[in-house]
Structure formats: C-alpha cells, structure tokens
Amino acid sequence: MPNSKQPSPKQLMSVIQTQTAIAKLGLDLNAVMTLVAEQAQGITNAKGAVVELAEDGDMVYRAVSGGASHFLGLRLKMQNSLSGLCIAQNETLYCQDSEDDVRVDREACRRVGLRSMAVVPLIHCGEPIGVLKIYSERVNAFKPGDLQILSLMSELIAAAMYHATKFGAQELYKLATQDNLTGLANRALFLDCLRQGVEKAKSENKVLGILMIDMDGLKPINDEFGHRIGDAALKEIAKRILSNTRHDDLVARLGGDEFAVILTSIANQELAKSAMNRIAESCGLPFVFENVQLSIGASIGLAVYPEDAQGLEQLLECADLKMYENKREKKQIQLNDF
Q1: Which is more confident, 172 or 257?
Q2: What is the pTM of this model?
C-alpha cells in the first residue's frame, strides 16, 4: 500500500504527463490554469479544484474544475479566507474541517460545498499572486502526499506564468482573463463582470442586457478547409461583434464557437434589441479569406435584467434558450427555401 506521506508513483507520473500537456498549450495561460486545475482534482481525488488570483482585495476564481465549475468568476474577500491567508503567509495551508476552522469564510465554504481543503501559493517573480486550491465535501480528505502533489502542480502554473510574461501583474492579469485566439475577454472574466454588473444594476435600479452568440458555419469551414481557416473566421466574427458594441460593453469568447456580450447601462429592451440586430446583420455579411468565399453568421439570444430574469443563472439560461430558438428558426427557413 502506498505511503500517504509521499505521492504515489502513479500521481508523480500524472504530474509529468501534465507538464508535457502544458508544453503543447504554449502561452495560453488560461488554458494552462484550467488544465492544472483539472489534473490536480483528478490526481488527488478532490471534489473540485480552483485557481484563484488576487485582484483588488478579492480572491477571484479564474480557472475551475469539477464541482466548482459554476463558480467560475466568483469573487471572495481576501480577508477572513484561507486563500487570502495563504498569500499573506506565502505557505501551503490545510483545513481539515471548515466548520471548526476560524481561518476560513464558513459561509463561502458552505456555498461551494466544501468541508476540507488545501491551498498552495502561486509564485510569480518572487511574489505570491494567487493560489491553487483543492477541496472535498469530506472532513480531512487529504494526506501529506496530496499536498506535495498540489505544490508540484502550482509550480507548473508558476513556470507557465513566467514564460508567458516577463512583465508585471497587470500583464499577467490580462493573459489570465483573455481568449488566446481573439484577444476578447474569456469565460472567467465574462462571468466575473456579469456578476458585478447584475449587482450594480440591482443596487442602482438599472437595466442590463446580455447576448449569447453562437457562430454559424464554423464546423463546415473546419471540415472543408481546416482549422487555420476556421480560426480566421472566428477572429472575423469577434472583430464584427466588437465593432458593433460600445466601449462600455464587454465582448467575450466563451469557448469554441460561443461568444457573449454584456450590454451595460441600456435604457430599455428596445435598445438592446437594436444592438443585437446590428451584430446579427454584420456577422452575416460575406467573408472572403485567401480568395475563399466563406459562409458565416451568428445566432443570437437576448436576455434583459430585470425584465427577463433577476438572477445570474436565470439570465444566462434565458439568453441561451432564445439563442437556440433563433438557430432553429434559421434552420427552418433554410429548409423551406430548399
């Protein structure tokens, strides 16, 4: 039976395999953080794993795995949290039972559904700038060998951070929150800003809109012309969405062919619909790349706070449903034309 005080050979092999996978991701820091979170969870049999970065007095969930997936972009105060203490002390910390540990934010632990957790600092240019955390719904779920694995995994993220940027924390923040292909905000930043936007709209009695956008035609382009041409089409759609939004709006690529927009400070739903129609029209215009005529477009769903929904999850679900409805309508029109 393996010694629980030391990582098992299988665990160490998984760390080596993770290092190899990271090398293939290059400078895509967000992808590296997500990969390490997923691997840390699997190797330690944790319920979930999180990469939290310290930003403006908050610990922000920038990459997640497992049970924490719907908390991406969540902000917790550094004070009175184990993650904040980990950064302050610059050392690995272990909580055996969140119900008995005065160092933790107990309410936040209950929300996430954790009972025990371990956090290890992420060091960039000699300074702790975040943590890698694993957690379990069970009391005292982790052993010393798991904590050593966590430390090794944190070093993989730190190495990726160092190679990704030789600049300061601001450049690192940018790399951690932007989509590597398009330069738009990524899913973590989108959810972070949406949470804050809904809270602000609530407190100031304002209207906020979100657009969920699914690019049309990407799969046929990838199948016929390859992913290099497909990437060019994705970048073109990103550019068209961006050019039809305002400076205060946030445009994000959520992954694959999914995009989203947060429409801030809109007076009413009609203005939001107008923005949606402009984007749809622009995305459907002809696109020629390297003398190849490509058919692209966008299916879009709009949801407005507080008219359509008053909570973040409900707002996203409403916009998603409307987007799929738009996609179905377009397919039906194509079938009728045929």
Answers
A1: 257
A2: 0.82
